Amino acid sequence: MQELPKPLTKLTWDNPIMIGPAMAERLKLNFKDVAELELNGKKVKGAVWIQAGHPDNSITVFLGYGRTRAGRVGSGAGFDVYPLRISQTPWFADGAKLTATGETYNLASTQGYQTMETPDGSERPLVQERNLEEYKKEPNFAKEGEPKPDLTLYPGFDYSKEAYSWGMAIDLNSCVGCNNCIIACQSENNIAVVGREQTLKGRHMHWLRVDTYYNGPRENPKGFFPAVALHAV
Fold first, then answer.
1. Can you give the pTM of this predicted structure?
2. Residues in Cβ contact with 111 at an 8 Å cutoff, skipping those fewer than 6 apart
3. Which DSSP category does 60 fall into?
4. Model confidence over 204-218: pLDDT tens digits?
5. Are 225 and 115 in contact (CB under 8 A)?
6. Number of C-beta neighbours around residue 214 at 10 A
7. What confidence tens digit (pLDDT) does each residue in 102-147 have?
8. What is the DSSP letter of 83?
9. Most buried by CB count within 10 Å: which residue of 10, 70, 77, 80?
């Protein structure tokens, strides 16, 4: 479960200080930056994660990490947020202060981009969308930019000669990116856990992968798209 990517952030093995893009720009914070979070006179430090669609001028942190006696899987994972929690405000509080420390820390995420746009301003049509009326007018829209059949390193395979051909279909209108299919596949097939260091190198072993993309401005995206892929290992 520590290595299972979180549905929205795709982070593993850690808990971040999560803020929105606009707030990160104001505070001059970026991914990997370590910040100090102060509330009610108590201070903790954690790595910043900038999340598309996160409410502006607010901070999200996650309890349950930073344990010191939780076994070899749980001990030392993430940072402890409990010092900020008091009985009067167990879940929500105001008046927090976030300050950069100048330190950096690599958060292990299985996905590099949150939106379809790339840093150079171009767009990657990994997920294509239309509403029903647009689909009726242009039912073949998803074939735009489709690669040529011979643009592959592998030879073609004639399934018409086979008695059975197997495939997997996923209804993306129903998928919410919960990752249940990933953990079920890992458990059923006894897939190895590789740890935080190898995840940072892109060597996570999940055969199923659900990436999460947001369409539109990162501050207020108009769409949330879980993109499912099956990895052949």
1. 0.75
2. 5, 10, 211, 212
3. B
4. 878 888 888 777 777
5. no
6. 21
7. 899 989 888 766 666 655 555 666 667 778 898 899 888 877 666 6
8. G
9. 10
